[in-house]
Amino acid sequence: RGGRRSKRRSSARVSPIPARDRGAPGARHLGRGRLAGAAGRGLPPTRGARRTLHAGAARRGSDLRWPTAARRGMRRRPGASRGGGARCGPASTPTSSWRSCTARIPSGSSSPALRTSSGTRSGSSGRRTRRCGRCGCPRGRGRRPWRRLTDELERMDEKLKLTEYHLDNKNLEVKKINDEKKAAMAAQFAAEATLRRVHAAQKDDDMPPIEAILAPLEAELKLSRQEIAKLQEDNRALDRLTKQKEAALLEAERTVQIAMAKAAMVDDLQNKNQDLMKQIEICHEENKILDKLHRQKVAEVEKLSQTVRELEESVLAGGAAANAVRDYQRKVQEMNDERKTLDRELARAKVTANRVAVVVANEWKDSNDKVMPVKQWLEERRFMQG
């Protein structure tokens, strides 16, 4: 027992908890006494160590327990596995497993977070969730947290860059303010030095009075003020002149713009004139062609007029024959008229002869055998048939 106690005391000096997680509630209590010695040698904690652990946690308001991964590393061999399942890695020492688990526990965490990290039972299924042997994190879900952590890291880097940029700007502003402050202090020191000199000069009896010293300075100051006023007036006059020159320049720019617009219009008009000249040349060529055609037509008309004159002369030469033909035609018409009248008279004579013949024929015949005109006979026949 004495040897074990000495070993425990020697091992209690080295704390298995990382320096960053020693501020967590219950962490200082874990690094004391038999509990730290048991964790350092890879042995399970005794009942007394557990009591001290839970008592310290109860005083601090937390429910800190011995990590499940550490118990697994203590109770099993490095190559063994529960139920033939794959493990995240061999639990070499309980100290490393305790560090990996405590690294994931934030400072000031409550008991539910520790319970979930140590592998408690789920309320719905009642089975233990398979977790990593080192850190106690659920298996198969390591990618999404890493992605989230990388995204958060990038965001923090961006924020850090922005803060560094703002910090540089603030440092520059502070530097400017310090420079101004130094310049003001230097001016103040110079003024104080001049005042000291003046007071020292007043104390000396050999020095002339201050009024005699200040009078020429005041005269020079008045002259300098007058010169400054003249220079200010000159500056005002120059400003007026510059304004006038600027106005004149603006007017000149406007005139130049108007001239440029006119020049552009002149260019457009010149282009239009060139187009019109080309069209006029084309029209002249067309007029020449039309003149040639007109001359040809005039020659043709002259030829036709000559043929008409020749025909008129031939008609006049054949006028006698035409008159004779007309006389013969008139005589033929008269003869045709006489023939028509003779035909009429002949028809009348035939009718009268027929009537006379009918009368003569009907004189010695009976009433039934008398000759009847054809028209009368046809009318009576129709009447009888109807």
UniProtKB/TrEMBL annotation:
Sequence ranges of Low complexity compositional bias: 24-47, 115-126
Q: Which GO terms describe its biological process?
A: cytoskeleton organization
| Subcellular location, record wording | Cytoplasm, Cytoskeleton
Q: Where is the composition biased (Basic residues)?
A: 1-11
UniProt entry tagged with the keyword Transmembrane helix: no
Per the record, which residues fall in region Disordered?
1-141
Keywords in UniProt for this one? Answer: Coiled coil, Cytoplasm, Cytoskeleton, Microtubule
GO molecular function of the protein, one example?
A: microtubule binding
Specify the domain of life of the species encoding this protein: Eukaryota
List, alphabetically, the GO terms of the cellular component aspect. Answer: microtubule
Q: Which Pfam families match?
A: MAP70 (PF07058)
Coiled coil (UniProt feature)? 214-352
Q: Which family does it belong to?
A: Belongs to the MAP70 family.
Q: What is this protein called?
A: Microtubule-associated protein 70-2
